[in-house]
Amino acid sequence: MHVYLGADHRGYQLKNDVINWLVSQQIPYTDFGATEYDAEDDFNDYAKKVADAILRNPGEESFGVLLCGSGQGMCMQANRYKGIRAALCNTSSDAFETRGHNNANVLCISADNARDHFSEILDSFLDAKPLPDEKYQRRCRKLDEE
To answer: Which domains are present in the chain?
Structure first.
């Protein structure tokens, strides 16, 4: 498993907390920034880097974690890429279900709302497995259609 991280200025501090959690869980990661606080940076740039990394490594069990103030901007940008299924999750049950039902490969977290429980959300997302039921597989295939 490998996790690709991206955060803008509003997600910068939470990204550092996520890194500490990943290290404690011995989960390898790549940090695409922000590497320092910059109030003028754009979430788009980090979401693109994470989406590109996932798509470049299709055989790898890799996931993206994107953090910004609301989580919405990161989610919208990441979902512009065919093959990326990004989901904004505010609870651990959201994260578990979106992996199981939708085979999400990018977790978007609101730095404004999930600071106190990000580890539960992240843990649920990484522990969940896509369900093998045909209906879920069919729906995921449709997500990747043009």
So the answer is: 2-143 (3.40.1400.10)
Cα–Cα distance list, 40 to 37, 45, 60, 64, 87 (Å): 9, 12, 33, 23, 25
Catalytic residue from among 9, 75, 89, 101 = 101
Span 68-127, pLDDT tens digits: 999 999 999 999 999 999 999 999 999 999 999 999 999 999 999 999 999 999 999 999
Decide if 89 is catalytic. no
- Tell me the per-residue pLDDT of 29-61, one tens digit each, with 9 for 90 and over: 999 999 999 999 999 999 999 999 999 987 778
Catalytic-residue membership of 68:
yes
Contact 46, 71 (CB under 8 A): no
pTM check: above 0.90:
yes
Which residue of the set 9, 68, 89, 108 is catalytic?
68
Separation of alpha carbons 6 and 62, rounded Å? 14
